[in-house]
Amino acid sequence: MAKKEDLLLEIGTEELPPRELLTLGAALGAGLSAALIDRRLATTDSSVQTFAAPRRIAARITAIAARQEAQIVVRKGPALAAAFEKDGSPTKAALGFARSLGVEVSSLETLNTERGAFLGYRERQAGRTLTEILGEVLPGVLLALPAGRRMRWGAGDGEFVRPIHWVVALQGARVLRIPIFGLVSGRRSRGHRFHAPRPLNIPTADAYEKILKDHGQVVADFGERRDRIRGQIEHLALTANAQAIVDPELLDLVTALVEWPHAVLGTFDEEFLDVPREALIAAMQGHQKYFPLEREGRLLPRFITIANIAPKDDQAIRKGNERVLAARFADARFFWDSDRKKSLDAYAQGLSQVAFEKRLGSLADKASRLERLARVIGSELALDREQAGRAAALCKADLLTGMVGEFPELQGVMGGHYALCHGEAPAIAQAIAEHYRPRFSGDALPASPLGLALALTDKLDTLVGIFGIGLGPTGDKDPFALRRAAIGILRLLEALGERHHRDLEIAPLLERARAQYPEGLLAPTVVEEVRHFLTERLRNLLENRFSQDVMAAALSPGLVRVFDTVRRAQALAAFAQSGYAASLAFAHKRTRNILKQNHEPLDAQTPWAGAEAADLRLTQEIERCETGTGERVRAGDYQGALESLHTLRPAVDAFFEDALVMSDDAETRKGRLRLLTRLAALFETVGDLSCLKIAGESR
């Protein structure tokens, strides 16, 4: 058996795109592992560890064989009946098959298969070496990495994310010589560009990260480097008696920018704290990749930067970063002072010159639609109509301010500040500040009712308008971020139901949004298209909370109200785990199966006295249960409604045992089928029970 040892592959490059770095490292490990498993050099038990630093991605895979095991390959030829003549001599088919293998017909054998007997040949193939196979698969693995852009360099025609300067390939302590991109792999890596610029020899695959750390001042493991940065930030913040604002995305980005992280504490002029907190944080995080500091929720004139070198004295790094940040803050203060010289109304007048979408008009047209729609939605939510309309009319105005031009991520937020500066009601200012939320998955929802209403209004207008002109998402293309808008709408509607007990119906909302557009501009089917789109997005949104079968049962009546659907799903999920779920689900399926056999028209409301005691008993129980279940459903007590259905079981069992549904008597048969139609409707009051996967149920 071929010896198995760890395989190390490192691709050394110029600085890689930081936002792609972690993905590139993971993809290298996954692609290389899959290729080696496919070629029988690794197994699914082989573990993969990936490394990603600014100038390298690497993977180490355990238990890799130096050579494939030899294998017997069976080659199937013509059917035995067509391989020989009556006198036993080989046919042209048999001779051709033997010739293609380079053997005599006498070397062939009979293969008995499920499809009959065939002529065959068993050939022993020697295993190929790891070096040979890596040479074959590595170009494809690198080509498959999910890189946004690729480039060429030098005289070669190979393409990669960045120019490749070295390649390390080791199995244990053995060097694997693989030609790639005009280079030949070896054991020479490189350390930190400034601290350890000379080549480093990697003695064994398992010594990789230790050699880089101890002699190259490179922390190759992305997770370890991120933890080191977080620890340094927390330590410096503690020395300043402060808490650091650590955005996870920024932490990942900074981790991808440095090989040997070193945190430095800096300060800035307290006068800049007069500028809104959000603008200062945007300048520190977005432009400079700094971590702001706060104390008890109040921003401090402090920041932490992560350098890629560790000097003996931090003073030069500190002063350089402080000087650059002061210039950024001076720009922010200029925009803050300049923007406030005009009111939001004045900025709003310029929205007519900014296109929203050529067929849907300008941003001024959008603001006008939002104003009308917000008044309607505000009324339904028992909010102040005038405040709702005013907030909608002004919510896009800050797009024309200098601050938002410099910091686009502050749109809405700065509008809220400017609204307060010019005397708008606090509720209006807060709604403007919040109306883009949620901006992304997991983002906070607006805290205020008016903010929820305005955010809902904005996203509804966009979703209905873009769908209405035929520009909905296709495949993985979603240029207008409509999937994100739909998820936002669903989260907002759930919050309105949960927080404020205002569970709005989907279809009327979509109709009102459509009505704000000129007649004939949008497709007549837009409301149904968007409702279907929202239904599918709701399944995705709730996939971590409910199983697919529960969502199918809860959505069986269609998506009417979001929070109501969530409550139905909660009740159905609990029901599926109850002791009586299996028996009720069985009774429901039996009822549905019988009804499927009927092709006669039925009127379930037509009274029927019943032919036997079982008929009368079930009729009485259904009438009783219809009343109680209906009251519970109207009250939103879906758990209670499902529990009340359990009381039907004795009457249902007696009916199926004592009564023949498909009776030869036409009147009796129709009466019993009408009774089962009412029973099926009861079973589906909360959701379609037949969709549920219930433990212990006979399926």
Briefly summarize what is shown:
With 699 residues, the chain is α+β, with helices and mostly antiparallel strands. It has a 5-stranded antiparallel beta sheet with strand order 2-3-1-7-8. A 4-stranded antiparallel beta sheet has the order 13-15-16-14, with helices on both faces. 40% of the residues are buried.
Structural summary, described in words:
With 699 residues, the chain is an alpha+beta fold. Helices cover 48% and strands 14% of the residues. The chain has a 5-stranded antiparallel sheet with strand order 2-3-1-7-8. The protein has a 4-stranded antiparallel sheet with strand order 13-15-16-14, with helices on both faces. Strands 4-6-5 form a 3-stranded antiparallel sheet, with helices on one face. A hairpin with a 2-residue loop joins strand 15 and strand 16. It is flat. The two termini are 48 Å apart. The relative contact order is 0.05. The model has no long low-confidence stretch (mean pLDDT 92).
